[in-house]
């Protein structure tokens, strides 16, 4: 399989701040990768390097190209949504389509129109008259109509309510993703992306601290509400974390055999958010 993104020892410093301290990445085509990390961990810097927006040290190839040296060529195959929709407020919806048609060789106007027809966005409305959610939908319609090999999303649903956030990810999965494209997402709303990801990376203080396919993730962790009499035995099995819920101890285990977990108490499969929080707190990762 061809790698869509390949990085070795990616580093970026801003004065005395190390934003990226040697990041290795290997992302194959057709994956939906979540890059998850606390504030200031280096997520946006990683995306900026991948998009060729900043110079960096180390080796980085995106779609076989060097993003900093070959940005123009790369941008013909990449689409990007930044945290806040950056569409000009004066532009009308149909003018935004005209504009995209004019500048982007891979923009399919009919596709954007089909997508917009499913929303309540009036084609003649100006961006400034649209709600935040509608603006995000318009942005998504413009992006989804680009036949890109890589879609990069940096906190794409920031400021949107839960209904729009759901709709955004559902559209992405149902109307856009085709198992050939690669999607890279950073977000703090871990719970909401878990179901669409194929792979996950945790980034902490400029380093990748965890990397897994979602398939492996789902069988790897167990959270056990331990019976009080089993607590010492459970702690001896080296849990990733321990927390109290309604006066009971809940321990998170990595790689514990299902029978052993079941013998300790009530078992459930933790969410990505549970494991993320456990790892960040356990490793002192909240910055
Ligand atoms: N242009 C810049 N100048 C100086 N420092 C920067 C710049 N961009 C990022 N940094 C620093 O690099 C580190 C990583 O920042 P980055 O924006 O990549 O984090 P992030 O994980 O995207 O955070 P958030 O979730 O808060 O958006 C932070 O310490 C940040 O202050």
Automatic annotation (TrEMBL):
Keyword ATP-binding listed? The answer is yes
**Record flagged with keyword Transport:** yes
SMART domains recorded: AAA
Annotated GO molecular function terms are: ATP binding; ATP hydrolysis activity
Signal peptide positions on this chain: none
Every ABC transporter domain range: 5-230
Q: Which InterPro entries match?
A: AAA+_ATPase, ABC_transporter-like_ATP-bd, ABC_Transporter_VariousFunc, P-loop_NTPase
Gene3D superfamilies documented for this protein: P-loop containing nucleotide triphosphate hydrolases
Which keywords appear in this protein's UniProt record, sorted alphabetically? ATP-binding, Nucleotide-binding, Transport
Check the record and name the SUPFAM superfamilies matching this protein.
P-loop containing nucleoside triphosphate hydrolases
Protein name according to UniProt: ABC transporter ATP-binding protein
Q: Which organism is it from?
A: Terriglobus albidus
Organism lineage reads as:
Bacteria, Pseudomonadati, Acidobacteriota, Terriglobia, Terriglobales
């Amino acid at each position: 399989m061809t790698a869509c993104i390949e990085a070795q020892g990616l580093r970026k410093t801003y004065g005395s701040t190390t934003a990226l301290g040697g990041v290795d990445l290997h992302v194959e085509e057709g994956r939906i990768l979540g890059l998850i990390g606390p504030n200031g961990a280096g997520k946006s810097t990683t995306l900026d390097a991948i998009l060729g927006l900043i110079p960096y040290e180390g080796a980085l190839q995106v779609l076989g190209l060097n993003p900093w040296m070959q940005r123009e060529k790369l941008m013909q195959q990449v689409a990007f949504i930044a945290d806040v929709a950056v569409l000009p407020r004066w532009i009308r919806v149909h003018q935004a389509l005209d504009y995209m048609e004019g500048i982007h060789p891979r923009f399919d106007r009919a596709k954007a129109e089909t997508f917009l027809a499913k929303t309540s966005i009036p084609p003649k409305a100006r961006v400034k008259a649209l709600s935040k959610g509608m603006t995000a939908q318009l942005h998504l319609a413009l992006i989804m109509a680009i036949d890109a090999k890589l879609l990069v999303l940096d906190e794409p649903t920031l400021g949107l309510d839960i209904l729009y956030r759901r709709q955004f990810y559902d559209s992405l999965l149902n109307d856009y993703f085709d198992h050939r494209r690669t999607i890279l997402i950073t977000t703090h709303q871990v719970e909401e992306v878990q179901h669409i990801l194929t792979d996950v990376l945790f980034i902490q203080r400029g380093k990748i601290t965890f990397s897994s396919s979602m398939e492996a993730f789902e069988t790897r962790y167990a959270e056990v509400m331990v019976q009080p009499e089993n607590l010492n035995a459970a702690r001896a099995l080296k849990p990733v974390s321990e927390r109290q819920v309604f006066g009971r101890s809940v321990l998170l285990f990595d790689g514990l055999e299902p029978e052993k977990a079941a013998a300790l108490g009530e078992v459930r499969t933790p969410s990505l958010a549970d494991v993320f929080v456990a790892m960040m707190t356990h490793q002192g990762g909240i910055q």
